[in-house]
């Protein structure tokens, strides 16, 4: 609230600098996500990799994509997001255990 | 004549106020009134489940008894378990959390008052729906675990009521869990850091996390069961490529965290009681917090210990066995911390403290037999015998129910504005405590002698006669205890004096409000200066909290009937779901009920309800 007490509606240099950095990071992470998507498609389409390795690689790329999504585009890297982060990690863990348990114990 | 007129007037106001009170409770969004609803609902179902328990014990009083028929016995044991877990223990705990947790963190209400009201009505109507099955052709009879294919092939509509009723009640619980999480994260008073929160608030927080992550598994499981029974799917039908074990996994992925949902809140409230009545800070506060987290964390990785005899193989069994035994470590930390809290303290023994003292040995026995049944090789002997019955009643009755009684005696003044009678409280404790050990201790040995679970009769001269007789006698004592407690509650309501704000010389924030508190809880939000914040002020001679803000207008939510209407819609559509298999006309109920619920949601979304303000002037006026 205190930042908005300026009578002119101009952003301060500090905020402009911050926004610029934020934009840069977002663009970089967006580019990286596109690149990893292209890699994923390329690996499958060209068939250069073994099936097992390809699946393994796809999993790693998928996890990286989710992390980018959460941390950069859903602002989890910012301050005050510790509790949502804890909840997301805990929820992911519970969901993983559930699916892994079912796969390992029922169908394996 | 003027006296007669005033009498008549008062009678009229009395009469009107009954309707007004009813309307007030139907529309309330206040956390304390929602807590009352949870407690009344939970108490009603607790009595119902208790009656079912007594019927079980009368049936097993003598060999080859025919007090009830075999089929009815199946319904009774199923409903006893389901009612006690979902409709008695958990709502009673949620009620206490609702009443006390906002007071302990200095909040005026929970984060989502509307959702809170919706949660309690979903629980109450879900519970009523489940019990309606008694009047509509028989209750569920597949055990409280409803294992497939027993549950998918059970004739009649009993198990349908189980699936739909629990689905509705479970949705309410899930909402409450999310509500508590948001409240604790966002609505703590200034200075109330995480590590200054009272332990009951901490365990409420961890329990809510467990609810959030465990209940979806139950929701999924119940939906699969519902689809299999009502819409011709084959998730659990082996003949059509399904798998019955999926149900067991889903049920226990929910079910094991569920038992920690039942026990963690009472760990918290026992910590408060030990600390208050020993006049000492809780020993090892930090380790208590982390032990709670550890129990919750491990609680998600042990579900398959309910399934050792399913045939998962030695490796899976061993992993789950070791993980289960690991839980004894944080639980042991807690037990020793409670003992160390009392050590050297100025211990005062009243009825709340008696329950807490009785809890330690009872629960420890339950924990010890827990290690025994966690041992895979031995579990092949214990499985499905009365040994298991004895084990989990020692943890759930010796832990959760004793905790509920302790919490009710401790917080009764805060929740209902009366202090419970000490003499009656002690009679309740001793009859219930003795009855409890009589009923369940002997069952360990009945189980070891080979008496199986869920059988409606046992034969003469197999060494089971005396044990079962003692066990049934114990149930009589427990019933007397509960009846005395109910008498106590009614007695102090009619005859008791209004309780003081702080009858126990308490340490935590809830004792700074009136008993019962105003609906806005505090005129000014208090400033928290440390753990046991009220005690800090007392030792420094202030005696009351320093306000953290000037006196200003208080923003409060408006009452609303929408949650009740929404729930009624789900309730009606539930019947539609159950009976549409017989007659297509029931689709009217199904879609009609859903329409009511969705319409209520629409009204809620479009309505601009910004709540109301209690003005500064009103607050000043009330001070005099």
Automatic annotation (TrEMBL), chain A:
Alphabetized InterPro entries for the sequence: Cyt_c_oxidase_su4_prok
Compartment(s): Cell membrane
Listed GO CC annotations: plasma membrane
Membrane topology: Multi-pass membrane protein
Annotated transmembrane regions: 26-46, 52-73, 85-107
Main location group: membrane
Keywords linked to the UniProt accession: Cell membrane, Membrane, Transmembrane, Transmembrane helix
Protein name, as recorded: DUF2768 family protein
UniProt source species: Cerasibacillus terrae
Phylogenetic lineage: Bacteria, Bacillati, Bacillota, Bacilli, Bacillales
């Amino acid at each position: 609230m205190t930042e908005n007490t300026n009578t002119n509606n101009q952003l301060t240099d500090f905020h402009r600098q911050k926004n610029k950095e934020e934009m840069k990071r977002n663009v970089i992470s967006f580019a990286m996500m596109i690149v990893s998507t292209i890699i994923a498609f390329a690996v499958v389409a060209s068939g250069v990799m073994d099936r097992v390795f390809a699946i393994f690689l796809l999993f790693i790329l998928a996890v990286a994509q989710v992390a980018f999504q959460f941390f950069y585009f859903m602002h989890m890297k910012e301050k005050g997001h510790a509790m949502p982060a804890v909840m997301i990690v805990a929820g992911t863990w519970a969901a993983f255990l559930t699916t892994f348990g079912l796969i390992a114990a029922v169908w394996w | 004549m003027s006296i007669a007129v005033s009498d008549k007037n008062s009678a009229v106001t009395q009469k009107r106020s009954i309707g007004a009170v009813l309307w007030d409770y139907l529309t309330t969004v206040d956390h304390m009134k929602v807590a009352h609803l949870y407690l009344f609902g939970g108490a009603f179902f607790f009595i119902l489940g208790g009656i079912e328990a007594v019927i079980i014990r009368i049936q097993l009083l003598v060999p080859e008894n025919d007090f009830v028929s075999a089929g009815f016995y199946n319904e009774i044991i199923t409903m006893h378990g389901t009612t006690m877990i979902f409709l008695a223990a958990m709502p009673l705990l949620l009620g206490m959390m609702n009443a006390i947790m906002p007071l302990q963190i200095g909040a005026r209400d929970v984060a989502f008052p509307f959702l809170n009201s919706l949660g309690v009505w979903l629980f109450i109507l879900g519970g009523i729906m489940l019990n309606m099955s008694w009047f509509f052709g028989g209750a569920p009879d597949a055990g409280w675990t409803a294992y497939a294919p027993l549950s998918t092939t059970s004739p009649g509509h009993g198990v349908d009521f189980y699936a739909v009723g629990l689905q509705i009640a479970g949705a309410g619980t899930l909402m409450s869990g999310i509500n508590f999480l948001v409240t604790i994260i966002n609505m703590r008073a200034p200075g109330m850091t995480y590590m200054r929160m009272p332990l009951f608030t901490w365990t409420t927080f961890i329990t809510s996390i467990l609810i959030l992550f465990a209940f979806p598994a139950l929701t999924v499981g119940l939906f699969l069961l519902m689809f299999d029974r009502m819409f011709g799917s084959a998730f659990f039908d082996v003949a059509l490529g399904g798998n019955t074990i999926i149900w067991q996994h889903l049920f226990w992925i929910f079910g094991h965290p569920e038992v920690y949902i039942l026990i963690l809140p009472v760990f918290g409230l026992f910590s408060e009681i030990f600390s208050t009545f020993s006049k000492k800070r809780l020993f090892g506060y930090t380790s208590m917090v982390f032990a709670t987290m550890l129990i919750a964390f491990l609680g998600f990785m042990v579900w398959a210990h309910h399934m050792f005899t399913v045939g998962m193989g030695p490796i899976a069994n061993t992993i789950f066995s070791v993980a289960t035994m690991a839980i004894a470590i944080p639980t042991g930390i807690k037990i020793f911390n409670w003992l160390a809290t009392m050590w050297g303290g100025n211990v005062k023994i009243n009825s709340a403290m008696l329950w807490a003292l009785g809890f330690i040995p009872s629960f420890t026995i339950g924990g010890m037999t827990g290690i025994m049944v966690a041992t895979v090789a031995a579990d092949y002997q214990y499985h499905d015998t009365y040994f298991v019955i004895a084990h989990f009643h020692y943890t759930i009755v010796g832990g959760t129910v004793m905790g509920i009684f302790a919490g009710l005696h401790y917080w009764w003044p805060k929740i209902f504005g009366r202090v419970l009678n000490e003499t009656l409280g002690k009679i309740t404790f001793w009859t219930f405590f003795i009855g409890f050990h009589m009923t369940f201790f002997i069952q360990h040995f009945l189980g070891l002698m080979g008496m199986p679970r869920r059988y409606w009769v046992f034969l003469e001269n197999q060494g089971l006669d005396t044990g079962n007789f003692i066990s049934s006698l114990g149930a009589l004592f427990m019933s007397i205890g509960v009846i005395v407690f109910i008498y106590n509650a009614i007695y102090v309501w009619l005859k008791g004096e209004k309780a003081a704000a702080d009858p126990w010389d308490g340490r935590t924030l809830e004792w700074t409000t009136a008993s019962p508190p105003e609906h806005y809880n505090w005129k000014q939000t208090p400033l928290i200066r440390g753990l046991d914040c009220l005690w800090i002020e007392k030792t420094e001679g202030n005696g009351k909290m320093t306000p953290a803000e000037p006196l200003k207008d208080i923003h409060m939510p408006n009452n609303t009937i929408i949650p009740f209407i929404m729930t009624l819609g789900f309730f009606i559509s539930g019947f539609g779901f159950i009976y549409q298999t017989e007659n297509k006309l029931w689709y009217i109920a199904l879609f009609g009920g859903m329409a009511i619920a969705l319409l209520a949601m629409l009204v809620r979304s479009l309505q601009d309800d910004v709540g109301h303000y209690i003005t500064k002037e009103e607050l000043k006026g009330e001070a005099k």
